[in-house]
Design goal:
63% strand
Length: 121
């Protein structure tokens, strides 16, 4: 099964990186808070990351702070289309469904604004 990871990242300010394994890379979104109770979370789609982050904790190159793993586990992709993804997570603490949806931006040039809807079991 493909894997996911949630990392706490302290640079440039505290945030969380949510990553889903996809082939040879990790699809990555920056979250402004940790998924906990059923909630909607602002998410920014980032460039793909290396799969090494599934296991990595420590300093990030280029003086970009450090990361600490908050959770890791497997996921099942339930649905995927352009700008929308739904998965079922089986992590140590994150167990439930997550939906990531692109928000229609004011400018068609910016496609990085998404939202995460988290529904725990």
């Amino acid at each position: 099964m493909p894997q996911f990871v949630l990392l706490e990242h302290d640079h440039p300010e505290l945030h969380w990186d949510f990553m889903l394994e996809h082939g040879d890379v990790l699809l990555t979104w920056r979250l402004d808070r940790i998924p906990s109770l059923a909630c909607e979370i602002a998410a920014m789609h980032l460039p793909d990351h290396r799969k090494a982050y599934l296991d990595y904790e420590g300093p990030v190159s280029g003086n970009r702070g450090s990361v600490t793993r908050i959770d890791r586990g497997n996921f099942e992709l339930l649905a995927s289309s352009a700008g929308d993804l739904t998965a079922r997570l089986q992590g140590t603490t994150l167990q439930g469904s997550v939906r990531l949806s692109k928000i229609s931006p004011h400018s068609s040039r910016d496609e990085s604004h998404w939202r995460m809807i988290w529904q725990p079991d």
